[in-house]
Amino acid sequence: MSEGAQLRERLDRVRARIGGAARRAGRSADEITLVGVAKRQPAERVAAARRAGLHCVGESYLQEAQAKIPRVGALLAACGAAPPHWHFVGRLQRNKAREVARFFDVVESVDREELGLELERRAAGRAQPLEVLLQVNVSGEARKGGVAPEALPELLAASARWRRLRVVGLMAIPAAAEDPEASRPAFARLRELRDALRGGPGAEGLRELSMGMSADFEVAIEEGATWVRVGTALFGARDPGPARASREEE
Fold it and tell me: DSSP labels for 54-93?
């Protein structure tokens, strides 16, 4: 089987699982956006996934993405296909904000005002606002990125002053667990936070919930996810490369 056919088959399986989870929750599968996490996947495989029908692609490592995104664009342009919507899903340092604002359509990992202000400054030349999600540390893990739940209202209120950014939702990465059900309380907590904040300062566009990865995205959908970040279930094994793999970056 060709790589393109394999990707199409995996994409169909993931979408079937999304549909099943949505039905169990009394939701429509159309409410859920699949983000294919492509870190340490070659550009050719990402382009093949786009041709197979994947619309959104996530990357965790800026240096890798800087080389891959133009290559994917060139491969797709050669066959008349449009590029994917690019999501940055990894931890982000302020000194990388300029290039992230240049290459990506969405940043899912804004967790402090200083980072938002830097992205705001670096997004000045964009034709459209940069969409961002506020990452919340729902598990309280000291080494994990994300704003503490009790500090989220303050960060959201500060985001109302960002004119070149558009806050569209919240993102979370629960603590690693063998059983997908162990992540359910964290997913429910993120949904509750979003719902409680609606109507407050900065919450006008707060609709999306990015939560759930290859191992637990069905549980996330049952708890209200609107974006799921799926890597290995879609693309298969990664090139191990030099980068450190972690739950934080699926």
Answer: --EEEES-HHHHHHHHHHHHHHHHHTTPPPPEEEE-S---
Asked if the structure places residue 229 within a domain, the reply is yes
- Domain of 125, CATH number, reads 3.20.20.10
- Cα separation, 159 vs 199, in Å, equals 14
Give me the domain span that covers residue 221: 3-235
Strand-pairing partners, residue 208, are 169
Biggest alpha carbon–alpha carbon distance for the chain = 52
- Mean per-residue pLDDT for 23-31? 97
Alpha-carbon distances, residue 141 vs 137, 176, 177, 223, 233 (angstroms): 7, 11, 13, 21, 26
Enter the tokens of residue 73. 């664009």
Q: What confidence tens digit (pLDDT) does each residue in 45-92 have?
A: 999 999 999 999 999 999 999 999 999 999 999 999 999 999 999 999
Query: Cα dist. 66→60, 125, 244 in Å?
Result: 11, 18, 18
Residue 249 pLDDT more than 50? no
208 contacts 226 by C-beta, under 8 angstroms:
yes
Closest CA to 64 of 89, 81, 84: 89
Instruction: Give the CA distances from residue 186 to residues 20, 33, 235, in Å, rounded to whole numbers and listed in that order.
Output: 21, 20, 26
pLDDT digits (tens, 9 = 90+) for 194-216: 999 988 888 889 999 999 999 99
CB-based contact 110:92 (threshold 8 Å): yes
- What's the structural domain count of the chain? 1
